[in-house]
Design brief:
InterPro entries: ADGRF3/5_N (IPR057400), ECM_structural_protein (IPR050751), EGF (IPR000742), EGF-like_Ca-bd_dom (IPR001881), EGF-type_Asp/Asn_hydroxyl_site (IPR000152), EGF_Ca-bd_CS (IPR018097), Growth_fac_rcpt_cys_sf (IPR009030), NOTCH1_EGF-like (IPR049883). Keywords: Disulfide bond, EGF-like domain, Glycoprotein, Repeat, Signal. Pfam families: ADGRF3_N, EGF_CA. By secondary structure, the protein is mostly beta strands. Among the domains are: 56 residues, no CATH class; 46 residues, Laminin (Ribbon); 45 residues, Laminin (Ribbon); 47 residues, Ribbon (Laminin); 48 residues, Laminin, CATH 2.10.25; 42 residues, Laminin, CATH 2.10.25; 45 residues, Laminin; 49 residues, Laminin, CATH 2.10.25.10. The protein is built from 11 helices and 86 strands. A hairpin with a 2-residue loop joins strand 6 and strand 7. The protein starts with a helix and ends with a strand.
Length: 1041
């Protein structure tokens, strides 16, 4: 169909004069060429009717309908410039006019209209209308053809059935009745009322077409507006409000929310459904949640939780109070410890320490105090009093001390001659006064060269032996010290003759001159034990040591060594400590015997010998450096000393015989010689082959030859084959590069190898062995069998194998088996997963191969830039933080899961109490001074503040109890200023109290200092300026001014 055909058809249809009356009840009022609209999920879109298609893909640009009204729509009326409308599928009919109603006049009118058309009617270069007929349809019924209606058509009445047999049959087809019945009762197309738009049944209904009729039923959750009438466009299906019409549908303690076509049940706050796996209803009701069983506690620590129906109550344990007393105790307003030491003034009384504990407190007396009554706890009625520690026994200061009591403490001091054991600590029973050891603690208390003797509290000094006090009339101390006595000045000498006297501090020392000794060596040298000459040569052992001569001299002696001996240290005289030692000529006299000799030292002398293989040059003379030992050359002296097939090696002092390689001595038990020569060895006869395993051995004169068997090679190719360099198997799989070719497995065997194709590969030519010229090639499973992985999957071939992967949103039907045609990939209903793929607080909608996630009301994606998932779950929207000032100023916002609550803070109230608190209905300040009558009580001033108020007593009044705030229970009472200890009126005045004030008047004879000011302490009453005369005695007058 193109635009020219459409234009001709439109011109033909538009040639009618509208409205055109067909019958008394039928008029044609409008003729349009349109597309067709259909509801597509959320909007109406243009589409082609049945048996029609878009001619090209460009037609798809006409997608959305022009307008929608009451659930139906009006489609595009204007034709596209390129004529791209829906076109009919290939058919035998070009124009098919179906009547949705039947009327004889209409049939006659159409027949006359069609007969007036000149045939053929050219619609385009390729389309002509050549024949127009109105007929019934023939169909085979057993053995003959009968007139019948087409599919979806019916006879308008039973009389139609009189036209049963067709006029004639031609080539297996039939010609139907050409003439119309006089009453015009032709076949009439069944009208599918269910296709009408708007629906004949009305919205929210289901329409079922029937031949010649239709049936309407309401969708679930809907019912007929009038149950006594059939469902129709005039008796539509209305929503069933289950929350109203079905008694207690959700059960007790629940909230029912009607929705269009359905309803939702929620448990009220503080309740939960009995069985969470089933929906809430009257059989699965909402039961009370015992919040007190929650862990952690809903009340927080240090609290008592009391469950209530649909709620709970929290109380703080003794010694605890709510963190914020203006809010209910909850997990976010927990019970905090009451610090009695701060809150309760002087709770423990004076001279005490208060220690707060969790939920309580402890009182202790400070050091030096004790509770008045030890049978009662410490408090401000049973206070801590001073302890007189100096009355304690034993003394708190310990022995050798003085104790002085002080308020709350005491002081300790040591007696003279005593001090605290630890000077860094105070004196006490644990740090007592110890005796001062003046001999130790007072540096040099007695002075040098003295002896100090400590006694309890005092000390004594004496001079040491060999010392005497400087001034014998004064006591010994560091100012009158002990000085040394020089005994060597005494005459005669205290040491006697032939001696040396050496004075020492506090003593003296006597020693004999060299060569002398004390007459009695067991006694010290003194004048009565003098020094005499020593005959050192008589001493045993000898003073000169062994191997020496000793000559005595007065006061001394002389030592000399025997021949062949010398002083151990030649720089020192010969003594017992520097003995005469043997002279080792073999060591100390260089090369005394000459080379190739052996020197043997003897005591006082030595001997020389030639080494084996050497002889003295002149045997008539002794061996020496001038008559040395020379080598005996055995290999020159006897050419055949070693025999055949041998080597003779001469070296200094000896010779050696060696068989040539490949030869051995005839008698291995004897040395090689001419009579026991070297003969050839047949190495190939050795039981342990000289060539090693996997080798051939060939004997040769004096040698042998080794070669490896096939499939073997020498271990070290740079060396000959031998027992230590054997023939090893040639690992063709390693040593011959790519011997089997790629994608193969090479299996080495002893002396050979095998080739196998790896899994997923096959040999190129199966008639030939596997090698680099006939390699293993990949088996392309994905080409060999397209369905190897089954539907909804990807097949990935790679060298040696293949892999199957399910498309995203699909999984293998049997998770224990691999993907295959027999175990294909099927759609995953991700919404059935537990835990949910969307995470908590979300809705999951499964779609083929995927799923969609959306957050419940009051929740939002954790990361709004990402899709909702188990890793980007729906978090609670904390409206209190995320929506700026949601509750407005002067309010408290409490976030709840999926929602929030607003409260006004203390001292504020919502502007409109009929509306919820919000930024548009804010919390305003409560003027307590106006709204709460007499809030401060009488004689007071109330001052409103933002969120609170203050009370003050009026001048001349004071609060009844100064420890409590001013209020109607603690009112302001009058102050009687006249009772003040210092008179408010000053001296010489009367004070009269009045309510809220007082009055002052001067006593008789006095007047106020400044009459323009009231009498006060600053403006006192003074005497009046008159003169009094007092007569005490005659002639004496005293004047007072």
């Amino acid at each position: 169909m193109d635009s020219s055909i459409t234009d001709q058809l439109r011109n033909l249809l538009m040639s009618f004069s509208l409205p055109y009356t067909i019958s008394d009840s039928t008029n044609i009022t409008e003729i349009n060429i349109t597309t067709v609209c259909s509801l597509n999920q959320t909007q109406y879109q243009c589409k082609c009717e049945g048996l029609f298609i878009w001619p090209t893909d460009t037609c798809h640009s006409y997608k959305a309908c022009d307008d929608t009204t009451d659930g139906s729509c009006t489609c595009i009326n204007a034709l596209p410039t390129n004529g791209q409308f829906c076109q009919i599928l290939p058919s035998k009919y070009v124009i098919d006019i179906d009547l949705k109603f039947f009327d004889l006049l209409l049939v006659d009118y159409l027949r006359n209209l069609i007969k007036n058309i000149s045939l053929p009617l050219t619609l385009s270069n390729s389309i002509n209308i050549t024949d127009i007929d109105m007929n019934t349809v023939c169909g085979l019924n057993g053995t003959e053809y009968e007139c019948k209606c087409e599919e979806n058509h019916v006879w308008p009445s039973d009389t139609c059935r009189t036209y049963e047999v067709c006029d004639g049959i031609l080539g297996g087809t039939c010609g139907c009745i050409q003439a119309l019945p006089s009453e015009g009762l032709l076949c009439q197309r069944d009208i599918d009322e269910c296709l009408f738009n708007p629906s004949v049944c009305g919205p929210d209904s289901s329409c079922t077409n029937e031949i010649g009729s239709y049936n309407c039923s309401c969708l679930d959750g809907f019912t007929a507006t009038n149950l006594s009438l059939p469902i129709s466009i005039n008796n539509k299906c209305r929503d069933v409000d289950e929350c109203v019409e079905i008694s207690d549908i959700c059960g007790p303690n629940s909230i029912c929310n009607n929705t269009v076509g359905s309803y939702n049940c929620w448990c009220m706050s503080g309740y939960n459904v009995t069985d969470t796996n089933l929906p809430i209803n009257s059989n699965n009701t909402c039961t009370d949640i015992d919040e007190c069983l929650f862990s952690p506690s809903v009340c927080g620590p240090n609290s008592i939780c009391m469950n209530e129906m649909g709620s709970y109550n929290c109380l703080c344990l003794d010694g605890f109070t709510a963190t914020n007393s203006s809010l209910r105790i909850r997990i976010d307003n927990t019970c905090r410890d009451v610090n009695e030491c701060v809150v309760i003034s002087d709770v423990c009384g004076p001279n005490s320490i208060c220690n707060n504990t969790v939920g309580s407190y402890n009182c202790w007396c400070t050091s030096g105090y004790n509770v008045t009554d030890t049978n009662l706890p410490i408090n401000n009625n049973n206070t801590c009093k001073d302890i007189d520690e100096c009355l304690f026994s034993p003394s708190v200061c310990g022995p050798n001390s003085i104790c002085m009591n002080e308020i709350g403490s005491y002081n300790c001091s040591c007696l003279d001659g005593f001090t605290a054991t630890n000077s860094n600590l105070p004196i006490s029973i644990n740090n007592t006064c110890r005796d001062v050891n003046e001999c130790v603690e007072i540096s040099d208390v007695c002075g040098p060269n003295s002896i100090c003797n400590n006694t309890g509290g005092i000390h004594n000094c004496w001079c040491m032996s060999g010392y005497n006090v400087t001034d014998t009339n004064l006591p010994i101390n560091n100012n009158n010290t002990c000085k040394d006595i020089d005994e060597c000045l005494f005459s005669p000498s205290v040491c006697g003759s032939n001696s040396i006297c050496m004075n020492e501090m506090g003593s003296y020392n006597c020693s004999c001159l060299d060569g002398f000794t004390a007459t009695n060596s067991s006694l010290p040298i003194r004048i009565d034990n003098s020094c005499t000459d020593i005959d050192e040569c008589l001493l045993s052992p000898s003073v000169c040591g062994p191997d020496s001569n000793c000559t005595n001299e007065i006061g001394s002696y002389n030592c000399s060594c025997l021949d062949g001996f010398s002083a151990t240290n030649s720089s020192l005289p010969i003594r017992i400590n520097n003995e005469c030692r043997d002279v080792n000529e073999c060591v100390e006299i260089s090369d005394i015997c000459g080379p190739n000799s052996i020197c043997n030292n003897t005591v006082g002398s030595h001997n020389c010998f030639c080494m084996s293989g050497y002889n003295v040059t002149d045997p008539t003379l002794p061996i020496s450096s001038n008559n040395t030992c020379k080598d005996i050359h055995e290999c020159l002296d006897s050419l055949s000393v070693c025999g055949l097939n041998s080597h003779c090696y001469n070296y200094n002092g000896s010779f050696s015989c060696f068989c040539w390689e490949g030869y051995n001595v005839s008698d291995v038990n004897k040395d090689i010689s001419k009579s026991n020569p070297c003969i050839d060895i047949n190495e190939c006869l050795f039981s342990l082959s000289v060539c090693g395993p996997n080798a051939n051995c060939t004997n040769e004169m004096g040698s042998y030859n080794c070669s490896c068997l096939d499939g073997f090679t020498v271990t070290n190719s740079s060396l000959s084959i031998s027992i230590t360099n054997t023939c090893k198997d040639v690992d063709e799989c390693v040593e011959i590069s790519d011997v089997c070719g790629p994608n193969s497995i090479c299996n080495n065997t002893v002396g050979s190898y095998n080739c196998l194709c790896m899994s997923g590969y096959n040999v190129t030519d199966p008639n030939l062995p596997i090698n680099s010229n006939n390699p293993c090639k990949d088996i392309h499973e994905c080409l060999d069998s397209e369905s190897v992985c089954g539907p909804n999957s990807h097949c990935y071939n790679y060298n040696g194998s293949f892999s199957c992967f399910c498309w995203g949103g699909y999984d293998v039907s049997d998770g224990n088996k691999a993907i295959s045609k027999g175990k294909p990939c099927t759609d995953i209903d991700e919404c059935l997963f537990s835990p949910s793929v969307c995470g908590p607080n979300s809705n999951c909608t499964n779609v083929i191969g995927s799923y969609n996630c959306s957050c419940l009301d009051g929740f939002t994606a954790t990361n709004s830039s990402l899709l909702i998932s188990i890793n980007n779950t729906c978090r609670d929207v904390n409206e209190c933080f995320e929506i700026s000032d949601i509750c407005g100023p002067n309010s408290i916002c409490n976030n709840t899961v999926g929602s929030y609550n607003c409260w006004c803070i203390s001292g504020y109230n919502v502007t409109d109490t009929n509306l919820p608190i919000s930024s548009n209905n804010t919390c305003k300040d409560v003027d307590e001074c106006v709204e709460i009558s007499d809030i401060c009580g009488p004689n007071s001033i109330c001052n409103n503040t933002v969120g609170s108020y203050n009370c003050w007593c009026m001048s001349g009044y004071n609060v009844t109890d100064t420890n409590l705030p001013i209020n109607t229970n603690n009112t302001c009472k009058d102050i009687d200023e006249c009772l003040f200890s210092t008179s408010v009126c000053g001296p010489n005045a009367n004070c009269t109290n009045e309510m809220g004030s007082y009055n002052c008047s001067c006593l008789d004879g006095f007047t106020v200092t400044n009459s323009s000011l009231p009498i006060s302490i600053n403006n006192t009453c003074t005497v009046t300026g008159a003169i009094w005369t007092c007569k005490f005695r005659p002639k004496f007058i005293i004047y007072f001014f």
